[in-house]
Hints:
Layout: H1 2-63, H2 72-91, H3 96-121, H4 126-213, H5 228-277, E1 281-286, E2 291-294, H6 296-301, H7 313-317, H8 322-336, E3 343-350, E4 356-367, E5 373-382, H9 384-398, H10 408-427, E6 433-441, H11 444-451, H12 453-470, E7 476-481, E8 484-492, H13 495-508, E9 513-515, E10 518-520, E11 524-530, H14 538-554, E12 560-562, H15 565-587, E13 590-599, E14 604-616, E15 620-622, H16 624-634, H17 637-658, E16 666-670, H18 673-677, H19 681-691, E17 699-704, H20 705-710, H21 712-725, E18 728-734, H22 741-744, E19 751-754, H23 756-760, H24 766-781, E20 785-788, H25 794-802, E21 807-808, H26 819-830
Parallel strand pairs: 11-12, 14-16, 16-17, 17-18, 18-19, 19-20, 20-21
Antiparallel strand pairs: 1-2, 1-5, 3-4, 4-5, 6-8, 6-11, 7-8, 9-10, 13-14, 13-21, 14-15
Helix pairs in contact: 1-2, 1-4, 2-3, 3-4, 4-5, 11-12, 14-15, 15-16, 17-19
The structure holds ligand C2E and magnesium ion (MG) (2 copies).
Amino acid sequence: xxxxxxxxxxxxxxxxxxxxxxTALYISNTTVELSRLIRLHEIENLRQHLxxxxxxxxxxxxxxxxxxxxxxxxxxxxxxxLERSAHNCLSCxxxxxxxxxxxxxxxxxxxxxxxxxxxxxxxxxxxRIDTLKLHAAQTGNVILMSTETMSRKASETxxxxxISAMEKVKRxxxxxxxxxxxxxxxxxxxAARLTVFITRPVNELVKGAxxxxxxxxxxxxxxxxxxxxxxxxxxxxxxxxELENGxxxxxxxxxxxxxxxxxxxxxxxxxVLASRGxxxxxxxxxxxxxxxxxxxxxxxxxxxxxxxxxxxPKDWFERVHADDREHLEAKVAAHIEGNSSHxxxxxxxxxxxxxxxxxxxxxxxxxxxxxxxxxxxxxxTDITERKVAEEQLIHDAFHxxxxxxxxxxxxxxxxxxxxxxxxxxxxxxxxxxxAILFIDLDRFKVINDSLGHVAGDHLLVAVSQRxxxxxxxxxxxxxxxxxxxxxxxxxxxxxxHAEQITGxxxxxxxxxxxxxxxxxxxxxSIGIALxxxxxxxxxxxxxxxxxxxxxxxxxxKAHHAVFEEGMYTTTVERMHLETDLRRAVxxxxxxxxxxxxxxxxxxxxxxxxxLVRWNHPKKGLVYPMEFIPVAEETGLIFPLGEWILRSACNxxxxxxxxxxxxxSLKMSVNISSRQFLQPDLTEMIAQVxxxxxxxxxxxxxxxxxxxxxxxxxxxxxxxxxxxxxxxxIHIDDFGTGxxxxxxIHRFPVHAxxxxxxxxxxxxxxxDNLQIVKAIVMLAHNLKLELIAEGLETAVQLDQxxxxxxxxxxxxxxxxxxxxxxIEAYLKRNLGRDAS
Length: 835
Ligand code: C2E
Ligand code: MG
Ligand code: MG
């Protein structure tokens, strides 16, 4: 800007100076002219003086000797004056023409002067004087005339010079006026330009400053130039942008801060609400002063009023359960020392009523710049209910819900523990033996099925109590599931000792249990495994105790067995049996035998019971008791059962065709419990009947009491379905189960098959006879038919006939036979029927 101003002023000055110089030049020029004019006027004056002097001299000359005349002296002095004037005049003329004229004039004046001097001196001679006078007068006239000519010329020159001088003066004036005028205009232009240069940015800056003042931070002035104003605007704009950035940052920070404040407020509000809602107590511990603020809720949680507890840490810690205090203090210390991110500790604390409550304390320390905690605050939540629930859960996870005994998991845990103990003490060459008892209740399934699940459960509870009473307090009695129990006898001296304890249990077991008003009896089969066996894992002990139990079971009820190596083979055999059975089902290694069922009164054949046999490739004929349970367990009973039903029906159809009688031959087929529960059993039977075009009335299915008792309602429903189809239903092995008499009338069955065990001892055991009699009466009352099973002797036959039992089946009448033997039998007995 400075440069610009200097530039403008300099150009104004140069312009003005140029105008002034020009004016000065014109003026100085005019001055020369004027001085010449003055000179010319002076000359004119001299010339006039000369003319006057000359005319004076001439006049004097003519008047000489007249009264008017002057003396000769005045003429001489005038002539001298004339000469001087001529001389002066000559000296001031530069013009050559004029100078030349003046030179001539001087010569003439000098002649004139001479003439005059001669005239003057020639005074004695009058004639001569007159001549001289005349000559002088003539010369004077010539001079006068020349002078006049000269005067005319001089006037002309003077006039022209004056005009020229006036012209120059005029021009100088014009230049001066133009210079002044233009300088003024230029000055105005410079002023205007400078004004524009200064005011525009200033205005813009003012506008910008106003905008910013009104809040438009970041406003930028739209002006650029290379002057200081440009720089100022640049700085102003940068400042405005910076201001905007700063403002935005500040604004953002304020918003962020507000958000944080809001979040904090909400968080605090939430915390207050949460702690109120959660019923938490609050505490705030000034670590420097050793004072602690305990909220009234905190105190109320322990049953205290606000004023009843002090504000010292001991008011808290002294009430903490002795077993938990150290743990809590350690956690608090760890957090204060910065070794944990926060305090979180569960502990028991004494309530005013003397009980202990479980509390969860959470807290956080506040630290100074050195990291030293000076304050710690937090909450206390009553978690008693949760803890109790947790303890319950833990208890439940490790205990049997029904009996409250340790379950399999806990049993295994204790066994592992005891096993490790044994291994350690064995290394030290010391330690006692321990033993495992694997206990299975005999016939529990039957009891359960016949008395129902609830009674079964009650029996299990009673058994578990009896078992627990039979062992020492340190021993573990566990329920592994179902009717299986296991015991760890922590210390036994030897095999006999273990057997002695087992014997004691077994002696207690048969004593009656009173379940729901009934006397229920059970026994237990117990397998024993001793830790002296060369075991590497506790699981091996369990496995062996289990094997020993099976061994005991195979000996009959209420036995026990100590595991021996050989027993393992039996188990392996069972595994082989399973594999073989699978293969047998696939390859169809089964055949059916048929045992005739006779009407006792007239000794006639009414039908057959189909009995399955396994034609084992190596072992030969295997009987159903050996494989049906395995087939049940493995599910192979489904394909096998269906095959039996199809084959039996098919066979019956053939025999019915061969021996058409009225009433026609019937076929009884045994249905196992798992089969009975099969949802599509009815459908399958119907399909088999259709496939063989067999009347439903020709088919009898045999089920046991326990199968119905398992789920009476659904069993009755299934039986009703079968019955409505026309199928006959017989209850097999009747008398061995626990079916309550109150239920039997609801069973939609056609006949009861008296179990072989009663028939067998009928004549030797009065009780059995009474049972058979009772069954016969029951059947008669319920209008059910009766079939006696296991009829082996003529005595039995007679007794049964006497008891009015209609039907019988047994070796005495006929053994079960294969197809061809039956066919021969049929020929023999029904030959006359054959078409
Ligand atoms: P169960 O249904 O009570 O069949 C009668 C059993 O008693 C047959 O034994 C038969 O041979 C035997 N028996 C018949 N009369 C006498 C006798 O006078 N004295 C003696 N001691 N026994 C006699 P088996 O064939 O060994 O069958 C045993 C059990 O296996 C059957 O008892 C039945 O519960 C089951 N069973 C047999 N076949 C099948 C079948 O095809 N399917 C199903 N699920 N189970 C079957
Ligand atoms: Mg049967
Ligand atoms: Mg039977």
